[in-house]
C-alpha cells in the first residue's frame, strides 16, 4: 500500500508507456456535447492559425534569401564576417593583449638567444679553421 501511495506522489514527467496511457485515455465521456463542439472548433481554428503561420514564415524566409542574394551575401560571406568579427573581438580582450605581449617578448628573447648561439658556433668554426 505504501509503494502504491508513493507512486501517486511521483513528480517525474511522463515517459513512454505513461504517455501512451494518457494519449489512449478517453476523456470525452466527461465532456458535455457543447464542450466537445467548442473544443473541436478551437482545434480547427488552431490548425488554421498554424497553417497560416507556416505560410507566412515560409514567405519571409524566401524574402530573406532574395534580399541576401541582392546584397551579394551568401553563407561563405556570412561565415567570413562572423569569423572576422570574432577574431577582432578576441584581439581586443585584455587576456589576448597580455598573451600577445608575453609571447612577443619571449620570441624576441629566443631570437636573440639563437643569434648568440649562431655567433658562437660561427666563432668556433672560425677558430677550428685557423688551427
TrEMBL record:
**Keywords, in A-Z order:** Coiled coil
| Coiled coil listed as a keyword | yes
Top-level division of the source organism's lineage? Eukaryota
Q: Any coiled-coil ranges, and where?
A: none
Q: Does the keyword Coiled coil apply?
A: yes
- Cite the residue spans of the region called Disordered: 1-34
The record's Pfam families line, in alphabetical order, gives:
TPD52
Which family is this sequence assigned to?
Answer: Belongs to the TPD52 family.
- The identity of this protein, by name, is Tumor protein D53 isoform X3
Native organism is Galeopterus variegatus
Ranked from the top, the taxonomy reads:
Eukaryota, Metazoa, Chordata, Craniata, Vertebrata
